[in-house]
Design goal:
- There is one protein chain.
- By secondary structure, this protein is mostly beta strands.
- Helix content is 2%, strand content 53%.
- It is built from 1 helix and 16 strands.
- Strands 1, 10, 11, 12, 13, 14, 15 and 16 form an 8-stranded antiparallel sheet that branches.
- A hairpin with a 2-residue loop joins strand 15 (204-212) and strand 16 (215-223).
- The two termini are 35 Å apart.
Length: 242
């Protein structure tokens, strides 16, 4: 079975290079440019304390473009804190066909980063968020795709397919000479999707390597989409939370 592999490294998203084109007008109309040539930033009327960057701006076929704006701030419009927002925009030429705003745990005072990934018959978005706190570090991936088209709705909704940790470490905390009985985690996971462009929900393949609770691990899972929950199930063994 062929698969499309997402190669994951700690605190690094190694997926396609983002296009540097200007924002499509339909998206740009939602924001106010603040300036900057190499790394332009924007504000949004309903989030005036946020500083937005275009963390994804990619043409995925002749007509479709995906834009993700990453906002630095929190619900009280304070920038420079460990949270933020992602605004996901799908466009057909310059017309918005699907959109969603998602709050995510931040990384070093920003919402995180985003990349495009082919998931079966649809182009999806993978969002990266994470934290580093008191010796614990985690990076998470969340996968989103536009729902199947509703002929009644003007805009498609965007659905979450999965959320999982792809890097988990307690190495900064787990020093046996200081913390008695601690068990080391230094776990890296890779995620792939079966290469089946006729299937909107191809199998997800997860491969985990490293150290988990002080023991070496090298294990794979093939996860079928769960239509009852609307998401891919994540193996409890690697679904770590500190």
């Amino acid at each position: 079975m062929k698969k499309v592999l997402l190669s994951l490294l700690p605190l690094c998203l190694s997926l396609p290079v983002l296009a540097a084109d200007a924002l499509p007008q339909a998206v740009a109309n939602q924001y106010q440019a603040l300036g900057g040539q190499e790394n332009p930033t924007w504000q949004k009327a309903d989030n005036p304390g946020f500083i937005y960057t275009a963390c994804l701006n990619q043409q995925t076929d002749a007509q479709q473009r995906i834009v993700v704006m990453c906002g630095d701030g929190d619900e009280n419009h304070n920038s420079g804190v460990d949270t933020g927002f992602f605004d996901i925009w799908y466009l057909d030429n310059d017309r918005v066909t699907a959109e969603k705003t998602i709050e995510g745990g931040g990384r070093y005072g920003s919402s995180g980063s985003a990349s495009a990934v082919k998931i079966g018959s649809r182009w999806g978005v993978v969002l990266e968020t994470g934290y580093a706190l008191q010796g614990f570090v985690q990076t998470f991936y969340s996968f989103y795709v536009p729902k199947e088209r509703d002929v009644v709705a003007k805009l498609q909704d965007v659905e979450k397919l999965a959320h999982l940790p792809v890097y988990s470490s307690n190495a900064g905390y787990c020093d046996p000479s200081v913390v008695e009985g601690c068990k080391l985690d230094e776990l890296v996971s890779t995620v792939a999707f079966a290469d089946n462009e006729t299937e909107p929900y191809p199998d997800m393949i997860i491969h985990a390597t490293g150290m988990l609770e002080g023991k070496k691990i090298d294990k794979s899972w093939t996860q079928a989409f769960d239509r009852k929950t609307g998401e891919y199930p994540i193996p409890k063994e690697i679904d770590i939370g500190y």
